[in-house]
Amino acid sequence: MRIRTIRAVLFALVVLAASSASFAQVRISVTFGPPALPVYEQPVCPGDGYIWTPGYWAWSDDDGDYYWVPGTWVLAPEAGFLWTPPYWAWVDGAFVFYDGYWGPHVGFYGGINYGFGYFGEGFEGGHWDNGRFFYNRSVTNVDVTNIHNVYNTTVINNNVNRVSYNGGNGGVSARPTRQDEVAARERHVPPAPAQTQQMQAARGNPELRASANHGKPPVAATARPGQLSGREAVPAREAGGPYNPPTNHGASQPRSEGGGSRPATPVHPNDLPPMQRPAAPNTGNPELDNKYQQQQQKLQQKQDQERQKLQQQQENEHQQLQRQNANDARKQQTEQRHQQQTQQLQQRHTQQQQKLQQRQAPPSRPEARPPQRKQ
After folding, report:
1. Mean pLDDT, rounded, for 308-332
2. What distance in Å separates the CA atoms of residue 30 and residue 209, rounded to the nearest whole number?
3. What is the layout of strands, in order, in the sheet containing 255-256?
4. With bands split at pLDDT 50, 70 and 90, how would you rate the model's confidence at 278?
5. Rounded to an integer, what distance in angstroms lies between the CA atom of residue 200 and that of residue 194?
6. DSSP β-ladder status, 255-256 and 28-30
7. Which of 153, 87, 96, 147 is nearest to 124 (CA)?
């Protein structure tokens, strides 16, 4: 029984490590649908290489409410990569959230009409050519005095529905095409740190809660991530439709495939959840148990010190960028590197815990064999 328990703990740690790196497979589900997409203007593109990421409704399990994540311009993590927006879908009796991602092609995003080139299928707002992104001025707000790689192609948009979810009662009825299925199998990159910053800033703003703005957020879009105030913050002109959540919606709880709420993508060590420590060993040998306990405490202290050291290192780099007045591209590259460092640290600590658990596992005893009968 002891061996099976330790193996179950090790398996759970492996699943935890895999889920932290698999950004698109952990899904939140809610019992009532998000509001319609609000009507708003797109802020002007701040510079060459930025790609529009449309706003969307996210879920906060802190108070059981949707909140609006404003659309914003984001530098592509790699040349040639495009953004596939997240979306909600009615699946097995609940509304399920599918996270967005970067990749060489735009995949399926529920047929949702996010506007500005994202009209339900593919992307009409621009394309890459020889490492440069060219903007379609007919559907994106680009200042040609600063950005010259532009073109004009009229796009006929027959999708005027502002419903923000796929399937279910009143939802969009789109299904993935063959091209969408091919795009789903390509290499993907999770949301950039700047997008995580935008989401976290929106989550901390009570005015962006659907219960407060009734589907008409006071900040619907921003020119740059994290700038939820000032001239570059664009309010919604109107709600996309009436919003009538259930009266007891605050008691609704999301669930995820992994049995918990979906964590934000960690960027810095302080964003990581506390490391789950194993229970005190109980092998039946007090002296051996005390030795194992000391090993666990030593590993915990070492890992805590490594987290603090990496956090301090990353904070020093942020301060250096501020002193140097670094541009957005350099800041985003630094945040991407910080995200990789943090995830590598988390995975290394998980592996260390696994190895320690394996060393502390008591040796298995061979099963007793019944005495052989003499003929």
Report:
1. 82
2. 15
3. 165-166, 87-91, 94-98, 28-30, 255-256
4. low
5. 10
6. antiparallel
7. 153
Query: Model pTM?
Result: 0.64
Count CB atoms within 10 A of the CB of residue 180. 18
15 backbone dihedrals φ, ψ, rounded to 5°: -60, -40
Q: How far apart are CA 126 and CA 134, in angstroms?
A: 5
Residue 259: pLDDT over 70: no
Closest CA to 93 of 178, 25, 30, 15: 30
Q: Using the structure block, give the residue that is written with the tokens 């502002």.
A: 162
Q: Which amino acid type is present at position 22? A: S
Of 168 and 280, the structure prediction assigns the larger pLDDT to 168
Interval 43-62: pLDDT, tens = 999 999 999 999 999 999 88
* Per-residue pLDDT tens digits for 120-155: 999 999 999 999 999 999 999 999 999 999 999 988
**DSSP assignment letter at 189:** B
What whole-number distance in Å separates Cα of residue 210 and Cα of residue 30? 14
Question: Which of the 8 DSSP states describes residue 82?
Answer: E
Strand bridging mode 94-98 / 233-234: unpaired
Q: How far apart are CA 90 and CA 169, in angstroms?
A: 9
373 Cβ partners below 8 Å, 6+ apart?
Answer: none
Q: How far is CA 106 from CA 177, 275, 307, in A?
A: 12, 36, 36
Residue corresponding to tokens 């506007």? 115
The strand pairing partners of 73, in sequence order, are 52
Write the pLDDT tens digit of every residue in 197-208: 999 999 999 999
Q: What angle do CA 256, 257, 258 make, to 5 degrees?
A: 90
Residue 289 CB burial class (10 angstroms; 0-12, 13-18, ≥19): middle
Q: What are phi and psi of 304, to 5 degrees?
A: -65, -40
